[in-house]
Structure formats: C-alpha cells, structure tokens
UniProtKB/TrEMBL annotation:
Species of the source: Polaromonas jejuensis
Key words, A-Z: Membrane, Transmembrane, Transmembrane helix
Nucleus as UniProt keyword: no
Record carries keyword Transmembrane: yes
Transmembrane residue ranges: 6-26, 46-71, 115-137
Name of the protein in its database record: Ion channel
InterPro entries xref list: K_chnl_dom (IPR013099)
Domain Potassium channel: 63-133
Amino acid sequence: MTLAMLFIPAITITLISLCACIHYEALQRCNAMLPQLRLHNKRAKVLAAVGAAMVSHFLQIGLFAAALYFLQHYADLGYIGGNFKNTAFSFLYFSTETYTSLGFGDVFPLGHIRMVAGMEALTGLVMISWTASFTYLEMSRYWRPDSRKTARSLLIRKKAMTP
C-alpha cells in the first residue's frame, strides 16, 4: 500500500469536512445576524446573505487551491497540466473551475491529485446547492410582499375588472 493510497483519501476527507464547517458557520452566522441588520430595504438582507455565501465559497476554493499547491509541490502526488503557469493565481483559477464544475479545459489534474479535484467538484456542487436552498429561505423571509399593498392591489384589480 503506497503513501498516496492513504494520504489522498485522508486529505480529501479533511478538505470536505473543513468546507462543510466553513459553509455551515457562514450561513448560520448570516442567518442569526440578518434579522438584526437595520436595513430599510429588506431585499438588501438577501443580498447580504448572498454575499456571505460567496465569501464562504471563495474561502473553500482557496482551501482546495492551497491543498493542491501542497500536493503538487511538497507531496509530489501529481500536478496540474495544460496551460498552467504554476502561480497562486493559477491554482486559484483551477480550483474555481473545479469547484464550480466548469470542467477541465485548458488546465487539468494528472496523477493522484485527480481524486482531490474530483471530490472538489462534488463538494462544490453540494455547497452551491446548499447556498441555493439558503437563499430561497432568506428570500421567503425577506421578500414577501407587504400584505397591505397586496390587498390594495387586489382590490384595485377587482374593481377594474368589474363592469
């Protein structure tokens, strides 16, 4: 049994766990803070929730990028090929492309880090879905039409339709 066969699953499980914790904390804190924000426009609260989720996603992408950098440079468990410049920005680009499931186009993983990249795509799919669900709940809470305005507009429409 090689070191890679033990190390890659361990690092992958650690990354997925950290991503779930980061996202949970970001969304939980956002959910707790939104009712306390004194914003005149309730829709701005939904935008704040989306912003918090985006920060969480960016942190997760950065975490995977750092792990891929480590695995390529220090663990020698594969490398990223293609049009890849071996800079921090390139690792961040590759991680963003993978996390968002855009696919492997101009850069692609080779060697044992392919498993990490594949699990990053799955993690991104789950986290982005979680964000969509959270955003829907926040929109349901803050984007409800004002009941008085809705009742007034229904009354106006009813009068307009009556001959």
